[in-house]
Amino acid sequence: MAVQINLLTFSNLKQLFISCLNAIFLSRRESNCTAVYSVSFYDENLDFIETAQISGDNINLSNIKSGLWYKAGEDLPLMAHNLNGDIRLYAVENVIEITKQHQLNNVRNALDGKYIILNDILLDEEGAGFEGSNGWKPIGDPFSPFTGTFNGNSCSITNLWINRPSDDYIGLFGGIENAKIKNLGVEIAEGKDIKGNFEVGGIAGYINNGAIINSCLNGNINGSYDVGGIAGMAYGDSCIINSCSDGNINGDFDVGGIVGFIYSKSRIVNSCSSGNVSGCDKVGGIAGYIGNGVSITNSCSTANVNGSGKYIGGIAGNIKNGSIVNSYSSGNVSGCEYVGGIAGRVECVVTIKNNAALNPSVAGTNCCNINRIAGYVEDNSTISNNLARSALPILGFSNFCDGNANSGIGKTDDELHKKDTYETTLSWRFGDNNDEPWIFDDCSYPMLYWQNVQ
Q1: Counting CB atoms within 10 angstroms of each CB, which of 176, 317, 391, 440 has the fewest?
Q2: Residue 62: which pLDDT band, with cuts at 50, 70 and 90?
Q3: Of 53-62, 87-96, 248-257, which gets the smallest average pLDDT?
């Protein structure tokens, strides 16, 4: 029978892992205990490896993972934690476990910490972190950013809302820098939203050299400039990977389903938006504005995108010196002018290739610079090997790039519902990993493999 032990007893174990013949052994200072313990292992990034059983001195693992942070003879500073009889071992010291709202609120008091959530957290608007009618107080800002590691551990933070329409850097986190947030779900309270002024996002208002990985936002976001479902602004060497947003994202300028404004060699990979994205100028299903070396890869937007002004796109509103590759948009796109199924305006050196404009409609009130791939293209851009619904418009845009490449390769609806169309024309790879990121159900459109396992 499994026996619960406390940390004092467990501390008698030496902090030494030795891997051998698909087993790991912990040597003891005392060897007279033969109880069975359930132990979960986490690597140095706080990523879960697996749960195993300790019986005496022996830990039998069902599957030794690649990477092997527990190498033979390697002495690691492991910490043992005990919660409700479960023991977790981390390959780094000073991991802070979060199970309650006040512990989440305390993250703001140690912005360089290593955190892991162990269960879903339902926020109480009368509890720690909430400030009356202003709602949740964002953790950190660009001047005192969060710089640690925050692993949601596939748990959700629910009932979040923020009402700070005059404040900047608004989100669960106000600002992160050289930090990593991953495996986190954020649910905005029903009937409420996250509301701010500049740099407003569901998970982070502002990112500098940071990463948001395998995280999702569900709910409504409202702001003025740089408004996004996941982040308001991202720059430096930042990345948003395997992440999604579903809700109504509203702003004035630089509004995106994933990020509002992104530049300086940052990247978005394997990410998707749905719902509705709306604003005035520079509005996109994934990003409102992309600049200075940013790449969007293996991503999609099913969101309806609407702008009252110009530079409106199914993936990006305005892209300058960046790339969109192996991605698609399948929502309605509408604006005034410079409207495209993939991008509204393309300027300077841009690559747009191997994408699909699956939009039911692409429309503009000013009937020029409307196109099923890119509304307007200038300078030395490469637009090639893109698919589009044959029924989408091609209206009065200038600066043709490579003949009729701006318009993409027209395909019928029937062709666009066949996996072979994407394999043969775009060379998309279908499988279940990052190298083969697409999956396909008959009579459907493609999906990213990770969307099927959320």
Answers
A1: 391
A2: very low
A3: 53-62
Collapsing DSSP states into helix, strand and coil, what is residue 104?
helix
Give SS3 for 299: coil
Query: What is the SS3 assignment for 453?
Result: helix
Residues in the chain: 454
Stretch 424-448: mean pLDDT, rounded? Answer: 89
Q: Which letter, b or e, does each residue of 384-401 get, where b requires 16 or more Cβ atoms within 10 Å of its Cβ?
A: ebbbbbeebbbbebeeeb
Average pLDDT over every residue of 255-275:
97
Query: What CATH number belongs to 95-453?
Result: 2.160.20.110
Can you tell me the distance from the alpha carbon of 298 to that of 354, in angstroms, rounded to the nearest whole number? Answer: 10
212-234, pLDDT tens digit by residue? Answer: 999 999 999 999 999 999 999 99
**So where are the chain's domains?**
7-90, 95-453
The Cα–Cα gap between 296 and 111 comes to: 29
Query: How would you classify the pairing of strands 281-284 and 253-256?
Result: parallel
Signed CA dihedral, 417, 418, 419, 423: sign only: negative
Classify the phi-psi angles of 424: left when phi > 0, otherwise alpha if psi is within -120 to 50, otherwise beta: alpha
